[in-house]
C-alpha cells in the first residue's frame, strides 16, 4: 500500500492566513524503493506501458486512503484521470463526492507517480472542481476555486494555485503555494 508522509512545513506566513496558508512540503510514497538503477529502470519501463485504465485501477485499490468526506463516499467510478499523460512522473485524478452535485461539490485530487498511487494532493477537502495544468512530465499546477467572504457558491471568485513537482532525487512530491482557506 502506498502512503503519504508529509514532511515539515518550511514556511507558513501569518499574513496570508486570511487567504489560505503558504506551504512548502514534501509528499513521499513510502513504498517506493530508494534510488537504485534497477528500480528506476522498472519504474520508467512501467510508465511507458501503463494507461488511463491502470491509473483508474490504482485509484480504486487505494480509494480508502483518501481523506473521508463525512458520510458521503467519493464517486471513484466518476473520477477524471489524467488523459494527457496518465503514467508520467507525476499525474492526477479528480474525484467528486458521490452526492449533491452542485457547482461547489467537494472534490479530491489524487496524485500518481508512473501510474502508482501516491496519495491525495491535500488532506484537506475543498469544494469546487480545481483546474489542473501540466507544467512538465513531473510537475502540475492546480488552481483551486473558493468563496470569498460574503459570496455565494455561484459568485465564488477566489483562486489560488498550488504547484506539485516530483523530485527524483528525494523521490518526493514537492508542494509549494497557497491552498484555499478552510471552510
From TrEMBL:
Keywords: Cell membrane, Lipoprotein, Membrane, Palmitate, Signal. PROSITE patterns: PROKAR_LIPOPROTEIN. Pfam families: Lipoprotein_21 (PF14041). Residues 34-67 are annotated as: Disordered. The keyword Lipoprotein applies. Residues 34-43 have a biased composition (Polar residues). InterPro entries: LppP/LprE (IPR025971). Residues 1-27 form the signal peptide. This is LppP/LprE lipoprotein. It comes from Corynebacterium pelargi.
Amino acid at each position: 500500500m502506498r502512503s503519504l508522509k508529509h514532511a515539515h512545513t518550511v514556511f507558513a506566513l501569518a499574513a496570508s492566513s486570511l487567504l489560505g496558508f503558504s506551504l512548502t512540503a514534501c509528499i513521499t510514497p513510502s513504498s517506493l524503493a530508494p534510488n537504485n538503477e534497477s528500480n528506476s529502470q522498472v519504474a520508467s519501463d512501467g510508465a511507458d506501458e501503463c494507461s488511463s485504465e491502470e491509473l483508474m485501477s490504482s485509484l480504486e485499490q487505494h480509494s480508502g486512503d483518501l481523506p473521508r468526506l463525512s458520510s458521503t463516499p467519493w464517486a471513484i467510478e466518476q473520477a477524471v484521470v489524467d488523459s494527457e499523460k496518465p503514467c508520467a512522473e507525476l499525474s492526477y485524478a479528480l474525484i467528486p463526492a458521490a452526492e449533491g452535485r452542485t457547482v461547489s461539490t467537494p472534490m479530491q485530487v489524487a496524485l500518481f507517480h508512473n501510474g502508482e498511487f501516491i496519495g491525495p494532493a491535500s488532506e484537506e477537502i475543498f469544494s469546487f472542481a480545481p483546474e489542473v495544468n501540466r507544467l512538465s512530465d513531473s510537475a502540475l499546477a492546480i488552481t483551486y476555486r473558493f468563496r470569498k467572504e460574503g459570496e455565494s457558491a455561484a459568485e465564488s471568485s477566489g483562486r489560488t494555485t498550488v504547484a506539485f513537482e516530483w523530485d527524483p532525487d528525494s523521490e518526493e512530491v514537492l508542494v509549494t503555494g497557497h491552498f484555499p482557506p478552510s471552510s
